[in-house]
Amino acid sequence: MPESNLLTCLPRLLATLMLCGVVIAVQADDATGDNAGLRRAQMLSFNCFTCHGPEGQGSGEIPALAGRAADELKARLQAYKRGTKQGTIMNRIARGYSDAEIDIIADYFAELERE
Questions:
Q1: Which runs of consecutive H residues, i.e. helices, occur in 30-113?
Q2: Which residues cross the membrane (predicted)?
Q3: CATH of the domain at 51
């Protein structure tokens, strides 16, 4: 695909991925039982796997998220959200999450073991 076509499609692709994340998060909110919180965290974190690899283990030059300190992940996501840290697409992705959702995502990845 020529680069110009990729750049044209990228905003639509990102919007679609974020919409999927919202739908999944809403479904997770409806979950009941002991694993509802875990399921919500997994659903919110699903978008991250596309770039950061399965279960946040890292993918090539994109860093692993699994096993990182929750406070570090929260600070970075908040910085992307506020625009004080620049990234290729992380600023747009982070703005799609509430502060509470950022906390859930960071806590989820902090609990995962890095392979």
A1: 36-52, 70-82, 90-94, 99-111
A2: none
A3: 1.10.760.10
Distance in angstroms (rounded) separating the CA atoms of residues 65 and 93: 15
Helix/strand/coil for 37: helix
Instruction: Please tell me the distance from the alpha carbon of residue 17 to that of residue 66, in angstroms, as a whole number.
Output: 21
Coil, helix or strand at residue 62: strand
Provide the domain count of the chain: 1
Is pLDDT above 70 for 9?
no
Six-digit token pair at 37?
Answer: 């919180």
Residue 114's pLDDT is: 87
Q: What is the pLDDT of residue 1?
A: 45
